[in-house]
Amino acid sequence: MKINEDHLEKMVTILKENGLKISTMESCSGGALASAITSIEGASQVFSFGAVTYNNEFKLKMGVSPYVIKRYGPYHIKTTQEMAKNAAKFANSHIGVGISGQLCIKDTSDDKNYDDNLVYLSVYIADEKQFYNKTIKVLTKNRVEAKNSIVNIVIDTILEIYS
């Protein structure tokens, strides 16, 4: 699966037209969303900040609540909500996106039993203090295709919100 360039360009255009800024905090997607957005000409008008917080230490440093990480673990919608909200807050953006989950590998770093290939994402609209959450079952074992499908879902979610 490839990133839907038409949808990506449409999203960036809508954000520009509305004077909106977006920031990301990504884990399993490894910055794929930030990379996709910044591949569009003029993205500097809408993209404020991107962080890849691949482990809990950096999620915590970026403001994710220690309670949330301890209670729910890194792969949970509550965690991605914290990631999205803190990305927006850190960069003073209108939109924050948080992405976390497991792609093609089982995490055994703690005693929680996580579902393989489940990815959680949250889009936070700061002005409304509103979260739009999705849980995705990734069906491919190809990590690039999995990341691209996650990026497409985020783009489509933002397009749904602003269309």
What does it look like?
The chain is of the alpha/beta class. The protein has a single domain, classed as Alpha-Beta Complex (Maf protein). Helix content is 42%, strand content 21%. The protein has six helices and five strands, in the order H-E-H-E-H-H-H-E-E-E-H. It has a five-stranded mixed beta sheet with strand order 2-1-3-4-5. Strand 1, helix 2 and strand 2 form a beta-alpha-beta unit. Helix 1 packs parallel to helix 6. The longest helix has 20 residues. The two termini are 24 Å apart.
Give a summary of the structure in a few sentences.
Helix content is 42%, strand content 21%. The chain is of the alpha/beta class.
Topology overview:
Blueprint: H1 5-17, E1 22-26, H2 32-38, E2 47-52, H3 56-61, H4 66-72, H5 77-91, E3 95-101, E4 118-125, E5 130-137, H6 143-162
Parallel strand pairs: 1-2, 1-3
Antiparallel strand pairs: 3-4, 4-5
